[in-house]
Amino acid sequence: MYTVITENNESAWADETGILYHFPKRYLKYLEPGTNIIYYKGVLKNKSFSKNRLSDAPHYFAFAKIGKTYPDKESIKNDFFATITEFIPFEEAVLAKDNSNYLETIPESRKSNYWRDGVRAIDADTYHLIISKVSPNKVSEQKKTYILDKIIENYQDSLESLSEGKKSKRYITTYERNPKYRKQAIAIHGNSCSACGFNFGDFYGEYAEGFIHIHHIVPVSEFEAPKTIDPETDLIPLCANCHSVVHRERDKTLSITELKYLIASRSKP
Ligand SMILES: [Zn+2]
Ligand SMILES: [Zn+2]
């Protein structure tokens, strides 16, 4: 399945380029998990965004895949969001109109309103036509960087140390610090602690709104081979206290069930 998704500089949607895509329910059928997507930007309406774009003209600027889709719990209109994976931005714009022809095939019946749809299913030929306009050397360079990033992520290179007394402890994993996974995990799970329910914004007010730790459920030591992360099942929001407690012992990470049990067994009836 192949789909073009629009991301404009100014919009009502809470998109995060290469991380999350936010959309109305009617587009759900075009954004199934694993769908190959091409990112599109339409006509430049506000000149001040010119520097944030590869071109002022309507153009394609990246390809990626849909991870999974979730209902947006905050939305009253039944909107959805999708996690984005394998995001590879182009270095140069691929213009929507090549000479005088559009790369996308516009059916006769949609001539007047085709571009109104921000999410558009395209056929395999159109997908490959757009991809063929991307300079192959540049993409392979980007692919290399992308793969390198993956390796670094997977090998948990930059573990943060937290010293507690004399022993220095490996504490927060790369996955837990990675802003992409953080944003995806918070969109999926919310920003209250999954173990005790603590919410920083509710307790401290606006200043702490949205603050939360993201905990990686699979302990680092259990990693055998590089694997990709599923923010739905592998990551969970925890408050700073609960997060410290699950990592209290070097050789053991408490499960969320164990942590909840500790909390429940202490609370008064
Ligand atoms: Zn907590
Ligand atoms: Zn953790």
UniProtKB/TrEMBL annotation:
List, alphabetically, the Gene3D superfamilies matched: 1.10.30.50
Q: Which InterPro entries match?
A: HNH, HNH_nuc
Q: Which residues form the HNH domain?
A: 193-248
A single GO molecular-function term is:
nucleic acid binding
Query: The organism sits in which domain of life?
Result: Bacteria
Name one matching Pfam family: HNH
Name of the protein described by the UniProt record = HNH domain-containing protein
Q: Which species is this UniProt entry from?
A: Psychrobacter aquaticus CMS 56
